[in-house]
Amino acid sequence: MKPSTQAKLWYWQRISAMVLALCVLIHLVTILVAVKGGLSGAEILARTRGSALTLVFYGSFVLACAVHAPIGMMKILSEWTALPQGAVNALCAAFGAILLMVGITAVSGVYRG
Amino acid sequence: MQPLSVSLWRGTSNGQFARYDVPRQPSQTILDVVTYVQRHLDSTLSYRFACRVGMCGSCAMSVNGVARWTCRTHVSKVIKGNTLEIAPLANLPVIKDLTTDMSAFFDKWAKAKGQFTGDQTRDDAFAIVRPDSEKRLEADAAIECIGCGVCYASCDTVTWKPDYLGPAALNRAWALVNDERDVAQTERLKAVAGDAGCHACHTHTSCAERCPKGISPTRGISALKKLTAKAAIRGELD
Ligand code: SF4
Ligand code: SF4
Ligand code: FES
User: Fold this and answer.
1) Are residues B190 and B224 in the same domain?
2) Local structure of B62: helix, strand or coil
């Protein structure tokens, strides 16, 4: 892979890591604050249904995952396996696409309730 | 005092350890131990040293599994029970006994563009660099490297990725990146970017932990990652 591409990927991995760190923090704090004395699925969905905030927040979370995880996978695969770089790239792109699809499906499900 | 039980690596990479009894002395260094064996027990033993005071960087070996400068390592600091195991530095081909072939190590300095490139002549005035400027302080921290190879031998990434430039070469590049007089900065960033360069580093800091000069190559490498990313985004690395 070209050095300039490596450098850009590192940048995107860094940025997405920052977004993820923030999202995980907000996510955990929200759980702690929201769950006081137990919450049911129905109750959660009642709150998240139609909430633009939920959509934007979890949408960004999913996007950051879909950027961050495949770049890390790419490093691991190219260091630990003998796969040619082309195959590694294709696998990781597919992995990213799957994460994005599954994530978006989940977020839109929660939004639509 | 009981004599030391010393195992020294003999032969090439297919060699084996041989055991010697070496009299214990006060303030004895590992290099003293090796020298004793060569002078009194087996004159065919090969090893390297020059300054004996921690300046030349030629005496590094693996002592009880840890890379160290042997001339400034006291036996009392590293001994386990009464035994010492001394081997050539890891991650480098063994020439014979305790001497390694350091060509690849220094070739990588050249590959990382570790040479200064200026554009002034002897007729120009001296460059004025403020001693307390941020760049000068960064360069000061990195420049003390004696090229001993301890960091290189301690880096797992070098072990599993033999074309990785390694901590010392990247630390050298970082020293020059902070040299305000140098005019080859873009070529240098191109040379150190990528998966054989700074992007291969896992930031696990073994190099910084082991460097006898207290340098942190990890710090310079992290800074190179940031600089190369900025340059790549501006399109300067293409
Ligand atoms: S921090 Fe980087 S250069 Fe230093 S030992 Fe770890 S991988 Fe090697
Ligand atoms: S950075 Fe430290 S350990 Fe590495 S070669 Fe230089 S002095 Fe030796
Ligand atoms: S002999 Fe010179 S640094 Fe050890």
Assistant:
1) yes
2) strand
Q: What is the Cα–Cα distance from A4 to B45, expressed in whole angstroms?
A: 47
pLDDT score for A45: 85
Q: Total structural domains in chain B? A: 2
Closest residue by CA, ligand 2 atom 6 = B145
The answer to the question of residue B238 being in a domain is no
Residue A15 per-residue DSSP state: H
- Partner-chain contact A8 B195, CB within 8 Å: no
- Measured between alpha carbons, how far is residue B40 from residues B6, B23, B74, B165, B212 in Å? 14, 11, 20, 39, 29
Contacts of A3 in chain B (CB under 8 A): 190, 193-194, 197, 199, 228, 232, 237
Chain A residue at shortest CA distance from B193: A3
Query: Which listed CATH number (1.10.260.40, 1.20.1300.10, 3.10.150.10, 3.20.20.80) goes with A3-112?
Result: 1.20.1300.10
Residue ranges per domain, chain A?
A: 3-112
Element (H, E) at B80: none
Q: Which of B100, B124, B156 is the last residue of a domain?
A: B100
- Residue B190's alpha-carbon distances to A19, A43, B185, B193, B219, in angstroms, are 28, 55, 9, 5, 19
pLDDT of residue A17: 98
Tell me the three state secondary structure of residue B132.
coil
User: Percent of chain A, pLDDT > 70?
Assistant: 99
Report ipTM (2 d.p.).
0.82
The range of the structural domain enclosing residue B39 comes to 4-100
